[in-house]
Amino acid sequence: MSDIAILGAGPAGLAAARLLHLRGIDCAVYERDADRHARTQGGSLDLGTESGLRTITACGLAEQFERYARPQGQHTNYFDRHGTLLLATDAEDDDEARPEIDRLELRSMLLDSLPAGTVRWGCEVADVSRIGDRWRIALSDGEHVDADLVIGADGINSRTRRLVTDVVPAYTGVTLIAGVIAEPRPDSYAASLVGEGAGLAFAADQAFLLQRNGDGSIQVYYTQRRAEDPRRAVGTVLHDPAFIRAELDRELADWSPRMRGVLDEVEAPFVWWPLYVMPARQTWREHSGVTLVGDAAHVMPPYSGQGVNMGLLDALELDGALSEHPDVDAAVAAYEKSMLARMEPMIGATTAYENLVLNPDGPQALLDLAQTGGR
Ligand SMILES: Cc1cc2nc3c(=O)[nH]c(=O)nc-3n(C[C@H](O)[C@H](O)[C@H](O)COP(=O)(O)OP(=O)(O)OC[C@H]3O[C@@H](n4cnc5c(N)ncnc54)[C@H](O)[C@@H]3O)c2cc1C
What we know:
By secondary structure, the protein is of the alpha/beta class. It has helices spanning 11-22, 52-58, 62-68, 103-112, 189-194, 241-251, 257-261, 295-298, 307-324, 328-357, 364-371, and strands at residues 4-7, 28-30, 44-46, 76-80, 85-89, 100-102, 119-120, 125-131, 134-139, 144-147, 149-152, 170-181, 198-203, 206-212, 218-225, 236-238, 270-277, 290-292.
């Protein structure tokens, strides 16, 4: 196969590179981060048997995954805003076992499985344009590279997406504010809420989501319906802790002091995560030599824990199609047909789930669902 450029070294792009490599096909991955340590990778992810785990196995990384995975991460406690326990569920209550892995470990595992030099760090893609029958990838430092097949794995603000659709992700009306309790005291209130898994607390249209990471730290998300704030894009680091604490204290005024006190344990700066979604039903225009995987294709709210899983499955299905069809465009068309059909109900379900997590009537509908093993 001719030159393949993957744009973005997130889980979807790296899995695509790994699968191609296993079939003896070289590619280059262009990533804007300066190196693998350039930013924290966030909390833990759970992988589904038929999606994320299937891909990791196809990548030949099942053993490494076992080493890092934590089945106990699936225990979840549900509370009201006063800290009263409403429900506790375990993995056995679910239809599907979904072991957890820290995002950092997942990325490292995939990175380490690639030949040295595959990922070109510090390469921010500024533009992708047609030059004859090839693609020219312009980098923000003024350099460029050319490729025959471009796989856009460049996440929510993809520069590749406009080659297949003019639709951009829409704000869902919900924002997460994320922080980390790096070294929680074993006897702290936050530790008692999460145990070794997750603790979720709810009020009308508000929720606290706490999650234990593999290194013992606790990821804290406060989530609320609010207007989009044009000053704060996805991933904005909130450097003024006093200001944001005052804002959160005001919003959480009718939560119990113990619940509000969880915020006092967060040492790292908070990060602003407005949530965006692509339409469930997408029709892409005709295109040649380019496709999208992961969030670039179908970003959606994180509540049902499917973003990474679907990105990994995209990589697997794209690789499968490329190995089956001698013609690259036929392979891409087969992959996209299946991927877009798969994502339509999933985006719909995730949006419905978001409406249960952030519900004007509080958590009852979500508890009913959790009690029957749904999520
Ligand atoms: C707060 C939060 C919690 C989440 N929790 C979960 C969860 O529990 N389970 C789950 O399955 N999913 C979760 N998700 C979703 C999940 O993180 C994403 O679906 C997943 O990371 C998508 O992988 P990706 O490889 O498509 O994109 P990304 O992980 O976004 O990777 C894209 C890569 O492209 C690079 N890039 C972007 N633009 C450029 C450019 N112009 N040039 C070069 N490189 C570029 C980025 O630096 C990045 O490395 C969560 C998301 C959020 C926001």
